[in-house]
Write a structure and sequence with these properties.
Pfam families: Bac_luciferase
Number of domains: 1
CATH class: Alpha Beta
Protein name: Dimethyl sulfone monooxygenase SfnG
Organism: Methylocystis bryophila
Distance between the termini: 25 Å
Keywords: Flavoprotein, FMN, Monooxygenase, Oxidoreductase
Helix content: 40-55%
Number of helices: 12
GO molecular function, one term: alkanesulfonate monooxygenase activity
Low-confidence stretches: 1-9
Bound molecules: flavin mononucleotide
Structural class: alpha/beta
CATH architecture: Alpha-Beta Barrel
């Protein structure tokens, strides 16, 4: 009996990737009045993107919000903002949030294809399915039931892939229709498709069509349960989906200093804004039939960071944080999406003090596995 080839199952795992939330909305990433040296304007963000790409970050994620709310009074639009960041950088990939409803897939396919030519690829999309009914109401967009929103998003994603790759694209869906449509030019390379959410519908969509699944911050056990669930479902569909987890990083020289910063953020939380956000996202979180949506179980403290980023616990001194990132990788996470209090300084600090430790630990693990 011949032995199995040595290469089977022996490919070293890819290095874990780092992304940061683009602060293209005002107020930063926490609903707190604690002082923040983060700005939502384009000059600040161009410089931040340049710092990020030289600090080991591969991706930046822009957000879409059409209306004010919960501490985010001003918001720049995601596709134009992403384009500006791509034009100011050389290697960074920028992921633009896209909300089906306000956007049609024909428009997104066209916009992304053109930008892809201007900047040499590098533009990805994050298809978000909507959580804020008031926002849809304000701009006169019909608000669909939770699972219908995901059915529409899935068609949206299937259409994007088809339009970007097929010569004459035809599609007869419940939400979108295409007849012998030829997009010219096509993007220079296939744009990656991310999506957000935690609900059953969000996970099932990821397990069928998305390249990447982004989820809210969570404990290691919570993340593992989601990863196992999605990977299991994706395997049944012969699909591979990569997983990105949100975390609000507070890395300081000592753990005591880092915890003090967290205390300051929580002490200065804006209670009215957090409670209003809580009310809205609990509705959204409970809107899915199984009541397991993104924020279904979030506490007041969790919600001081919009996407439960404290729960992931990347709070401490550099080595502690690096080791926790390795634990996330061990349970199957491919990318960590990070928010910071003072973005420019902290992205730089993270790149200087945490990412090299993560790379060293990854190299150690490969050496151990080979020994
Ligand atoms: C990392 C991440 C980024 C997101 N970005 C946005 C965004 O920019 N705009 C938006 O309206 N929703 C955004 N969402 C919301 C989700 O796409 C989704 O609509 C929401 O989480 C509801 O999920 P649920 O189905 O689990 O309740 C984001 C979610 C995650 C996890």
């Amino acid at each position: 009996m011949s032995a199995a080839p040595l290469s089977v199952g022996r490919r070293p795992p890819e290095p874990i990737k780092f992304a940061y939330w683009v602060p293209n909305v005002s107020g930063g990433l926490v609903i707190s009045k604690t002082p923040q040296r983060t700005s939502w304007d384009i000059d600040y963000n161009r410089k931040l993107a340049q710092i990020a790409e030289t600090s080991g970050f591969e991706y930046a994620l822009t957000q879409i919000r059409f209306t004010a709310g919960y501490g985010a009074e001003f918001q720049h639009e995601s596709v134009s903002f992403s384009h500006a960041l791509l034009a100011a950088t050389k290697e960074l990939n920028v992921i633009a949030a896209i909300l089906p409803g306000p956007w049609t897939p024909a428009l997104v396919a066209k916009q992304v294809a053109s930008i892809s030519h201007f900047v040499g690829g590098r533009l990805a999309v994050n298809i978000v399915s909507g959580w804020f009914r008031g926002e849809f109401h304000a701009i006169g967009e019909p608000w669909l039931d939770h699972d219908e929103r995901y059915r529409r998003s899935e068609e949206f994603i299937r259409v994007l892939r088809g339009v970007w790759s097929e010569e004459k694209f035809n599609f007869a869906g419940d939400f979108y229709r295409f007849h012998d449509y030829s997009l010219k030019p096509k993007p220079v390379s296939a744009p990656e498709i991310f999506q957000g959410g935690s609900s059953r519908a969000a996970r099932d969509m990821a397990a069928r069509v998305s390249d990447w699944y982004f989820t809210n911050g969570n404990t290691l056990e919570g993340v593992k349960a989601q990863v196992d669930d999605i990977r299991h479902k994706a395997a049944q569909n012969n699909h591979h989906v990569k997983i990105g987890v949100n975390a609000f990083a507070i890395v300081r020289e000592t753990e005591t200093e880092a915890r003090k910063v967290l205390d300051e953020i929580l002490t200065h939380a804006d209670p009215d804004a957090v409670r209003a956000f809580h009310h809205e996202v609990q509705n959204a979180g409970n809107a899915s039939p199984e009541r397991e949506g993104n924020w279904a179980k979030s506490s007041f403290e969790d919600l001081v960071q919009y996407n439960d980023g404290f729960k992931t616990n990347l709070i401490g001194e550099p080595e502690q944080v690096a080791r926790r990132i390795i634990e996330l990788k061990r349970v199957g996470v491919d990318l960590v999406l990070l928010g910071f209090l003072h973005f420019q300084e902290e992205v730089e600090f993270f790149g200087r003090h945490v990412i090299p430790l993560v790379r060293a630990l990854e190299a150690e693990a490969i050496a151990d596995a080979a020994a």
